[in-house]
Specification:
By secondary structure, the chain is an alpha+beta fold. It has 3 helices and 8 strands, in the order E-H-H-E-E-E-E-E-H-E-E.
Protein backbone atom coordinates (compact mmCIF):
# COMPACT_ATOMS: atom_id res chain seq x y z
CA UNK A 1 0.00 0.00 0.00
CA UNK A 2 1.60 3.23 -1.07
CA UNK A 3 0.60 6.48 0.63
CA UNK A 4 0.74 9.84 -1.10
CA UNK A 5 0.82 11.96 2.06
CA UNK A 6 2.48 11.22 5.40
CA UNK A 7 0.38 9.40 7.99
CA UNK A 8 1.01 10.42 11.60
CA UNK A 9 0.07 8.24 14.57
CA UNK A 10 0.70 9.01 18.25
CA UNK A 11 0.53 6.29 20.93
CA UNK A 12 1.06 6.81 24.67
CA UNK A 13 3.85 4.66 26.09
CA UNK A 14 2.78 2.14 28.76
CA UNK A 15 4.15 2.67 32.26
CA UNK A 16 4.33 -1.02 33.16
CA UNK A 17 6.99 -3.34 31.69
CA UNK A 18 4.42 -6.14 31.59
CA UNK A 19 2.55 -4.16 28.91
CA UNK A 20 5.47 -3.87 26.45
CA UNK A 21 4.64 -7.01 24.46
CA UNK A 22 0.97 -6.07 24.00
CA UNK A 23 1.92 -2.47 23.18
CA UNK A 24 4.37 -3.64 20.52
CA UNK A 25 1.72 -5.88 18.95
CA UNK A 26 -0.73 -2.95 18.92
CA UNK A 27 1.77 -0.66 17.18
CA UNK A 28 2.67 -3.29 14.56
CA UNK A 29 -1.05 -3.93 13.96
CA UNK A 30 -1.70 -0.17 13.59
CA UNK A 31 1.17 0.14 11.11
CA UNK A 32 -0.07 -2.89 9.16
CA UNK A 33 -3.37 -1.12 8.50
CA UNK A 34 -1.46 1.56 6.58
CA UNK A 35 1.51 -0.20 4.95
CA UNK A 36 2.60 -3.70 4.04
CA UNK A 37 5.38 -4.81 6.39
CA UNK A 38 7.87 -7.53 5.50
CA UNK A 39 8.85 -10.02 8.20
CA UNK A 40 12.24 -8.30 8.39
CA UNK A 41 10.60 -4.90 8.93
CA UNK A 42 8.25 -6.34 11.58
CA UNK A 43 11.22 -7.81 13.44
CA UNK A 44 13.28 -4.62 13.22
CA UNK A 45 10.36 -2.39 14.25
CA UNK A 46 9.55 -4.71 17.16
CA UNK A 47 13.16 -4.55 18.44
CA UNK A 48 13.16 -0.76 18.13
CA UNK A 49 9.83 -0.39 19.94
CA UNK A 50 10.83 -2.73 22.77
CA UNK A 51 14.04 -0.79 23.37
CA UNK A 52 12.41 2.67 23.12
CA UNK A 53 9.57 1.72 25.48
CA UNK A 54 11.99 0.03 27.91
CA UNK A 55 14.14 3.18 27.86
CA UNK A 56 11.08 5.29 28.62
CA UNK A 57 9.93 3.07 31.50
CA UNK A 58 13.44 3.01 33.01
CA UNK A 59 14.51 6.61 32.50
CA UNK A 60 11.53 8.88 31.96
CA UNK A 61 9.20 10.18 34.61
CA UNK A 62 6.95 11.77 31.99
CA UNK A 63 3.45 10.23 32.22
CA UNK A 64 2.69 11.66 28.76
CA UNK A 65 5.67 10.04 26.99
CA UNK A 66 4.63 8.77 23.59
CA UNK A 67 5.71 7.03 20.45
CA UNK A 68 5.02 9.02 17.28
CA UNK A 69 4.91 7.15 14.01
CA UNK A 70 5.14 8.90 10.67
CA UNK A 71 4.67 6.83 7.54
CA UNK A 72 6.02 8.64 4.50
CA UNK A 73 6.46 5.76 2.09
CA UNK A 74 9.05 4.31 1.66
CA UNK A 75 10.15 5.49 5.11
CA UNK A 76 8.82 5.00 8.61
CA UNK A 77 9.93 7.41 11.32
CA UNK A 78 9.50 6.29 14.92
CA UNK A 79 9.98 8.99 17.55
CA UNK A 80 10.00 8.50 21.30
CA UNK A 81 9.20 11.82 22.91
CA UNK A 82 9.34 12.61 26.62
CA UNK A 83 10.05 15.55 28.88
CA UNK A 84 12.92 15.20 31.31
CA UNK A 85 16.63 15.32 31.78
CA UNK A 86 18.89 15.07 28.75
CA UNK A 87 21.15 12.10 28.13
CA UNK A 88 24.26 12.17 30.30
CA UNK A 89 27.46 10.36 29.44
CA UNK A 90 30.22 9.11 31.69
CA UNK A 91 32.55 10.75 29.16
CA UNK A 92 33.95 14.26 29.31
CA UNK A 93 31.88 15.34 26.30
CA UNK A 94 28.34 16.42 27.22
CA UNK A 95 25.37 18.20 25.69
CA UNK A 96 25.57 20.99 24.58
CA UNK A 97 28.39 19.93 22.28
CA UNK A 98 30.90 22.44 21.01
CA UNK A 99 32.49 20.66 18.04
CA UNK A 100 29.89 20.01 15.32
CA UNK A 101 30.43 17.12 12.82
CA UNK A 102 32.90 15.46 15.19
CA UNK A 103 32.69 11.71 15.80
CA UNK A 104 33.31 10.74 19.42
CA UNK A 105 33.07 7.69 21.64
CA UNK A 106 30.77 8.20 24.61
CA UNK A 107 30.41 5.99 27.66
CA UNK A 108 26.97 5.32 29.10
CA UNK A 109 28.22 2.93 31.76
CA UNK A 110 31.58 1.53 32.70
CA UNK A 111 31.14 -1.32 30.23
CA UNK A 112 29.02 0.18 27.46
CA UNK A 113 30.04 2.87 25.03
CA UNK A 114 28.94 3.95 21.57
CA UNK A 115 30.28 6.15 18.84
CA UNK A 116 28.19 9.17 17.93
CA UNK A 117 28.43 11.94 15.35
CA UNK A 118 27.59 15.39 16.67
CA UNK A 119 25.04 17.12 14.42
CA UNK A 120 24.47 20.29 16.46
CA UNK A 121 24.91 21.27 20.12
CA UNK A 122 21.80 19.30 21.14
CA UNK A 123 21.55 16.58 18.50
CA UNK A 124 23.65 13.55 17.60
CA UNK A 125 23.44 10.41 15.48
CA UNK A 126 24.26 6.99 16.87
CA UNK A 127 26.83 5.30 14.62
CA UNK A 128 26.74 1.64 13.71
CA UNK A 129 30.30 0.40 13.99
CA UNK A 130 29.75 -2.26 11.35
CA UNK A 131 28.45 0.27 8.82
CA UNK A 132 31.15 2.79 9.77
CA UNK A 133 33.95 0.16 9.63
CA UNK A 134 34.99 0.77 13.23
CA UNK A 135 37.15 -1.68 15.14
CA UNK A 136 34.96 -4.57 16.34
CA UNK A 137 36.57 -4.46 19.79
CA UNK A 138 34.92 -1.09 20.41
CA UNK A 139 31.39 -2.33 19.71
CA UNK A 140 29.10 -2.65 22.76
CA UNK A 141 27.15 -5.78 23.58
CA UNK A 142 23.59 -6.07 24.93
CA UNK A 143 22.93 -2.37 24.94
CA UNK A 144 19.54 -0.85 24.04
CA UNK A 145 20.77 2.08 21.98
CA UNK A 146 23.09 -0.22 20.08
CA UNK A 147 20.21 -2.59 19.33
CA UNK A 148 18.19 0.32 17.93
CA UNK A 149 21.21 1.50 15.94
CA UNK A 150 21.60 -1.95 14.36
CA UNK A 151 17.86 -2.41 13.69
CA UNK A 152 17.35 1.03 12.12
CA UNK A 153 18.58 2.82 9.03
CA UNK A 154 19.24 5.98 11.04
CA UNK A 155 19.01 6.73 14.78
CA UNK A 156 19.33 10.22 16.28
CA UNK A 157 18.74 11.93 19.59
CA UNK A 158 17.68 15.53 20.09
CA UNK A 159 17.29 17.47 23.34
CA UNK A 160 15.47 20.80 23.46
CA UNK A 161 16.90 22.67 26.46
CA UNK A 162 13.98 25.14 26.56
CA UNK A 163 11.13 22.63 26.67
CA UNK A 164 13.27 19.83 28.23
CA UNK A 165 11.90 17.56 25.51
CA UNK A 166 13.95 14.51 24.52
CA UNK A 167 13.29 13.01 21.12
CA UNK A 168 14.74 9.74 19.90
CA UNK A 169 14.28 9.64 16.11
CA UNK A 170 14.49 6.30 14.33
CA UNK A 171 14.15 5.80 10.56
CA UNK A 172 13.34 2.48 8.91
CA UNK A 173 13.06 1.96 5.15
CA UNK A 174 9.88 0.06 4.36
Amino acid sequence: MKQSTPIKIGLKIPENPDDIQEYTKEVIHTLSRHVTLTEDNRRRIKLILIELVTNSIKHSEDPDAEIRLTINHPQLTIEKVDVGLQIKFRSDEQIPFEEINKTIKVDFTRFNSLNIKILNPYRFRFLDGYKENMDIEHLPEHFGFYIITRASDNFEYHHDPRSKENTFIVNVKL
